[in-house]
Amino acid sequence: MPGIGTPYKYGTRRVFPKDFPYSIVYRETANSLVVLAVAPFRRKPAYWRNRKE
After folding, report:
1. Which of 7, 34, 37, 44 has the most crowded Cβ, counting Cβ within 10 A?
2. Is residue 18 included in any domain, yes or no?
């Protein structure tokens, strides 16, 4: 169910699983889902955005 997440910035979506202390930020492509971040709620929002592979 890739569309379950809330639309977020830059064409990404994010989901906040119940009873899980992390949010998951992902992007849907034609053939797959690409997870960009599994971010803990306690960190500064979007701290991971400037990281590159």
Report:
1. 37
2. yes
What's the per-residue H, E or C state across the chain? CHHHCEECHHHCEEECCCCCCEEEEEEECCCCEEEEEEEECCCCCCCCCCCCC
As beta bridge partners, residue 15 has 24
What is the number of residues in the chain?
A: 53
Token pair for 15 = 């989901």
In this prediction the pTM is 0.69
Residue 45 lies in a domain: no
User: Domain containing 10: what range?
Assistant: 2-40
Number of domains in the chain: 1
Give yes or no for residue 26 having a pLDDT over 90: yes
Mean pLDDT for all residues in the chain: 81
